[in-house]
Amino acid sequence: MPPGIATNQFLYPRVPFDPETDFSLLGHVASVPNLLCVRKDLPVNSVAELIAYAKANPGKLNYASSGIGTTVHLSAELFKRMTGVDMVHVAYRGSAPALNDLVGQNVDLMFDNITSIIGQARAGAGKPLGITLLQRSTLAPEFVPIAETVPGYDTTSWTGVAVRAGTPKAICDKIEADTKTICGDAVLKERLAGLVAEAVGTGASEFSAYVVAERGKWGKLITDLKLQVE
């Protein structure tokens, strides 16, 4: 179950299912933050400097994304809204070509999934300014949270487990329990950590509440901006 379960109903004119009633959410498996990187010759070295630069040059900066409505795109739009900066969106078909243009200095910045961009960030091919978490990540502690400059800024990509609504309770209970067990497995945690992803392991009630909050957060932003995927 990807983040689209909380965003697609706002992005698409028609969705062939009701994301709020057609599924039973059973467990939050993993969470992956995004990393804000700018092209290496952009004259900023912190989130505060980026905001100041963008405000001094409204509309001059552009940012790449892996497509309209992705967490990469929405992270940038939330940043724009919370900071009051004006940047131009350049949408790509996927993260790889967007990241290639960032490294090639054809675009100014990108909020990419940390799993995809961390290699380039650590190698200096892009300049990392901040991670999209409220606190430092234990898996990538060298990256300063954007929230230290923009209080409350918090975005992640995530995955979870769900079944079709109406699935017998005994089956749901078993899947929920097994999901919690698997998320606590040391081998899984180690493998996820290698991707800079955190095992979450919360159950049905917590995951349902999380998705409701995500739906409210992103639904308002998408609706306000009139974003739509054809």
Textual characterization of the structure:
The chain has eight helices and seven strands; from the N terminus they run H-E-H-E-H-E-H-E-H-E-E-H-H-E-H. It is α/β, with parallel strands linked by helices. It has a domain of 97 residues: D-Maltodextrin-Binding Protein, domain 2. Strands 1, 2, 3, 4, 5, 6 and 7 form a seven-stranded mixed β-sheet that branches. The model has no long low-confidence stretch (mean pLDDT 97).
Kindly list the characteristics that best describe this protein.
21% strand, 230 residues, D-Maltodextrin-Binding Protein, domain 2
Report mean pLDDT, rounded to a whole number: 97
Give unreliable regions as ranges.
Answer: none
Question: What is the oligomer described by this structure?
Answer: single chain
β-strand amount: 15-25%
CATH topology label of the domain at 34-130: D-Maltodextrin-Binding Protein, domain 2
Q: Spell out the CATH superfamily of the domain at 34-130.
A: Periplasmic binding protein-like II
**Coarse shape:** globular
Supply the helix-strand structural class: alpha/beta
Distance between the termini: 22 Å
CATH architecture of the domain at 34-130: 3-Layer(aba) Sandwich
State the helical fraction.
40-55%
CA radius of gyration: 18 Å
The CATH first-level class of the domain at 34-130 comes to Alpha Beta
Mind summarizing the main beta sheet?
A: 7 strands, mixed
Separate helix tally:
8
From N to C, what is the helix and strand string? HEHEHEHEHEEHHEH
Summary?
The chain is globular and about 60 Å long.
